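Kindly inspect this one:
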Amino acid sequence: MKTRNYEEENTYQIIGLLLSDLRGSTVLPPGFPPPPGEDIYEFTTRDSLRRYKYFYKQTVRKKIIAFLPQIYASEKKNELQTINKCTNDKALINLFLESEKNIKIDINKVGNSKKDSLIYYTEKHKKMLGRGFNEIDMLLSFSNITFNKDYTRALLVVGVTFERLNGFSTLIYLEKENYHWEIKCEEGLSIS
């Protein structure tokens, strides 16, 4: 009889939740440019509909989302001040700071509600023009996910990249309520 692996199960629930949450950031909401020249230009309904139609198509189209294959151990000493903004759970914080796990992500286990194409970001992408970002919509990297003993609280760092010089890292604190993970705090990390 196979025993249940709670850590793996919760890890992929969180990765699936974050994938769904971050997917929306691949498309900016419609914006309207300033009027051309000195003339007063009034946007028509047709202009608005065209922008919203483009936005809708970009939102619903299937995306190519790449994952770094390994969960990484991050430089957590610099993140302590940010961690304290999200949670005061000392036991969870200590586990996060001490964790050195480096496991491989199995993209076949990631929940993918929009049926996007999930791929690994490989050496092939790094050698391509533009480091492969002309072929992918988003690159995700995850630190090790630290859980409390009863798997009701979690802490991790997520890196999100849209282009070579366009991305961010954020610390995320989650709590499990009614068998579902919910993001309770997101704090951006500064690059030092």
Summary: The beta strands are 64-67, 117-120, 138-142, 146-147, 153-163, 166-177, 180-188.
